């Protein structure tokens, strides 16, 4: 994996990072968190600028999620069901994300970046459910900024140990997802009680 990431950054630089993230967010099976952490590692070595890396990461995530939203809006659920499996968007993932979206709506756009498999579907569902672009952008873009900042900064801070993120994501993703879902549930309860507008 490191060889491919090295090749990507050496030959395509910041634009390569943006392009890969667009493809990953739209649904290609790419290890987005690993890519972001590796970018942070390159920042720690002085081979990339922290600010430029963050800008390219934000642009990739924002463009990718916007494309997904527009596809959902224009082509609907039949498109996802037909072409989703080619993008590793399985029927099970679609069904799970639909249920989550029904419960948590736009909040899932914000936090969904941190749930592998969910971030790829939330924007499609937002488009299918005719969520206004303004509301979509507010939640999805702020989530993209937090997600990108978190993993690039993590890679920068870990330095040579950047690859541990891949291990922890694979070993403990179930616990992480459970924590995220608990946070969403608590936010939902606060919203129901009128404490969050």
Could you walk me through the main structural features you see in this protein, from its secondary elements to its overall organization?
- This protein is an all-alpha fold and 197 residues long.
- It is 80% helix and 0% strand.
Give a short overview:
The protein has helices at 2-26, 32-44, 50-83, 91-104, 106-111, 119-128, 133-158, 164-192. By secondary structure, the chain is mainly α.
Count helical runs.
Answer: 8
Report the uncertain regions: none
Protein structure class: mainly alpha
- Order of SSEs: HHHHHHHH
Indicate the topology:
Layout: H1 2-26, H2 32-44, H3 50-83, H4 91-104, H5 106-111, H6 119-128, H7 133-158, H8 164-192
Helix pairs in contact: 1-2, 1-3, 2-7, 3-6, 3-7, 4-6
What characteristics describe this protein?
mainly alpha; 8 helices; 80% helix
